[in-house]
Amino acid sequence: MKIVTFWGGLGNQIFEYAYYQWLKNRYPMENIYAYYPKAGLMAHNGLELFKCFDVIEPPCNKVITIIATILFYLNKILNRLGLHLHCFTCTMQNKLYNSIFHCDWWQDKMYYAENYNLDFTNLKMNLKNQQLLKIINDTNSVSIHIRRGDYIKSNIADIYGGICTEKYYDRALSIVDKSISDNKQYIFFSDDPDYVREHYSIPNIIIVDWNNGEDSFMDMYLMSKCKYMILANSTFSYWSAMFNKTKRMVICPSKWNNLNFPDITQSEWIQIEM
To answer: pTM for the whole thing?
Structure first.
């Protein structure tokens, strides 16, 4: 028996589902369950994966939830004390795949193929999104994703801050601008649209500020339809590019965080080093 934790935002949940599938293939004779900790999901928009994509939800029951909850919080307590529950827990650091409890972000290309894809489902697009999708299809559309929100909080900024700076976006926009001769359309997606309005006044700009809360996944879908992409160091950004079948150019930062995580950048993407 194994239990995989699903937590974080939508981008992280996609990585976790890829790992869950990888684990199922590695251990075909074992029962593999899911654990959905409320504390690990509510910081974003809850469990979005199975609402947004046509995938089968991994099984879970009360007994599994009780076992996983004990291990989840025991791990948190021990980690704060500088200790680890290696005999029961698998993480990206120890890779003890025979463990019962699997709890990490699983941001590593080894757990999914380059053609890994999920199909969006139940896309009930409002009029604004329908109109935007038409613009995206009819122009040399450029998606620019700017992640702020929790990234500018002190405890998170240590991990993700100082990477996608204003200088990064200026350089990325310059590269894209030189690559497109006409019919340009810049589309900004951000959790801080007021910041975008204050800092960017380029021609042919649309700031998407209406997909909030349970509709926020629509930003991932719309970005995945743009022809040119400027990514943030965000898993939400990352998967919008991975699911994009018509992209002509993807620009991303040379690193995704300030930790020693594996590189998830695709070889054909243009990396900007800051």
So the answer is: 0.94
Residue type at 191 in one-letter notation: D
Q: Residues 72, 36: contact at Cβ < 8 Å?
A: no
Are the beta carbons of 16 and 37 closer than 8 angstroms? no
List the structure tokens of 153: 């909080």
- Backbone φ and ψ for 109, nearest 5 degrees, come out as -65, -15
Angle at 133 between CA 54 and CA 150, to 5 degrees: 70
Question: Cα separation of 188 and 200, whole Å?
Answer: 10
Q: How is residue 65 written in tokens?
A: 């939830």
Average pLDDT score, the chain: 93
pLDDT tens sequence across 173-205: 999 999 999 999 999 999 999 999 999 999 999
Give a three-class secondary structure readout of 43-79.
CCCCCCHHHHECCCCCCCCHHHHHHHHHHHHHHHHHH
183: left (phi over 0), alpha (psi -120 to 50) or beta: left
| pLDDT tens sequence across 207-238 | 999 999 989 999 999 999 999 999 999 999 99
Which alpha helices (H) appear in 53-199, and where do they start and end? 62-80, 127-138, 154-160, 166-179, 193-199
Looking at this protein, which amino acid is placed at residue 146?
A: I
CA dihedral 73, 76, 79, 81 (to 10 degrees): -80
In the chain, the domains with their CATH numbers are 2-111 (no CATH), 127-272 (3.40.50.11350)
Encode 209-269 in three state secondary structure.
CCCCHHHCHHHHHHHCCCCEEECCCCHHHHHHHHCCCCCCEEEEECCCCCCCCCCCCCCCC
**Residue pair 177/204 in contact by the 8 Å Cβ criterion:** no
Instruction: Please tell me the distance from the alpha carbon of residue 15 to that of residue 18, in angstroms, as a whole number.
Output: 5
Contact 185, 142 (CB under 8 A): yes
